[in-house]
Amino acid sequence: MKYKLRFAAFFTAMIAFNLAANFAHPVTPTVIQELKLHDYMFGVALAVMLITNFLLSPFWGKINNYISSRLSLLICCLGYGVAQVWFAYATTELMIILARMFAGLFTGGIFVSFLTYIVNKSDPEDQGKYLTYSATIKSVASAFGYMIGGFLGEFSVRLAFLVQAGTLIAVAIAFFLICEPDSTANLKDIPAKQLMKEANPFQAFIDSRNFMCMAFVFLFAINIFINFGNTGFDQAFNYYLKAQLGLTSSYNGIIKAGVGFVSFIANMSLCIWIIKKTNVKKSMVVLTAFCALASIGTLISVKIGIFILFSILVYAGYSVSVPVLQNMVADQASPEQKNLVMGFFNATQSLGSIAGSLTAGFIYSVNAKLPFACTFVIYSVGVAAAFGYLCYHKKEA
């Protein structure tokens, strides 16, 4: 298969994955309410998955050097599909928490493998463009996945989970057939003692000292804060629509489809222009500030239409910031460290999302609007981190 055709097929399979990965999200609030679980479970359920995602992401980035991104995608998509079947039949808080933790073992490997495959197999002149495509697909297809899951949930909550699992298993096979091997070492050549060391997820964090510098500290801090803000906002928004506004899962899906459309237009025009034509360090400051200001609108809005409009702006700002930041991180990394760096990038993304999900879940119980105020505060801290990175580079120049 030719280079361009192979990547076209790869991105098509990525679209299918990101659609399926979000089928369950719009029906999760319904599951929590039908099972009469605590309100904070909407945050806890995602957070526990992200904790195992966080712990394993650097490991997957490192192990891909030996087993190849294509095998990781096969293993992880299959594992994620099984985890969602478990979630579909969970009836208690403990069962849901265990199912979500099991899913997190594999989701980190999927998103890391997306990044490592693009970085390893794309031509240098295509890397920034393909990373932008990857981030755009994640935000846009995820939004339309919400829509599909929302409508599936109108027929049956469990149907959304089962269709999701079946699609994940299908894309697992597709990725293995489409992708080329990209491992840089043979697993058979690795001594058993070294393999045990490599299999320790915490070793990957220890190995990060080989590339960590002040520039990466700022970049990973930005990543943590924007994902803290976005995940906390997203989890609160989904539950707010159901619990406070009484909207069904299909309404949630329709709104997210609108988000996907706006994000697609923004990423295919504004995002590429930012990467190619602007000083991305300055642009990152502007993007995080935009998200902070838009989140104020959600906090003070009293009409549903205005609240949803500002929410879409928050989502759109985040969707543009992700590929810009990914490209900044990839450019900062040396070729021999890119797999580990991108694994660490995904880990810090998960770390921010863990904090955002847990915070939103618990402070929502105090006041339903409080998570939106928290979003403004966290994005404001992200502005400070982005400004710090800009000043650091000016000093180094």
Please outline what is shown here.
The protein is an all-alpha fold and 397 residues long. Helix content is 84%, strand content 0%.
* Structural class estimated from helices and strands: mainly alpha
Largest sheet: none
List the secondary-structure elements in sequence, H or E: HHHHHHHHHHHHHHH
CATH class: Mainly Alpha
Would you identify the regions where 5 or more consecutive residues have pLDDT less than 50?
A: none
Distance between the termini: 43 Å
What's the CATH superfamily, by name? MFS general substrate transporter like domains
List the domain count as a whole number.
1
Rough shape? globular
Instruction: Give the number of helices.
Output: 15
- How many beta strands in the DSSP annotation? 0
CATH topology assignment: Growth Hormone, Chain: A
* CATH architecture classification name: Up-down Bundle
Q: What's the average pLDDT?
A: 85
Radius of gyration over alpha carbons? Answer: 20 Å
Helix content: over 70%
Which percent range describes the beta-strand content?
under 5%
Describe this structure in words.
The protein is mostly helical. It has one domain (3-181, 201-396): Growth Hormone, Chain: A. 84% of the residues lie in helices and 0% in strands. The chain has 15 helices and no strands. It has helices at 3-20, 28-34, 41-67, 69-88, 93-121, 124-155, 157-178, 192-199, 201-207, 214-243, 249-277, 280-300, 304-332, 338-364, 370-396. α5 (93-121) packs antiparallel against α6 (124-155). The longest helix is centred in the middle third of the chain and has 32 residues, at 124-155. The protein starts with a helix and ends with a helix.
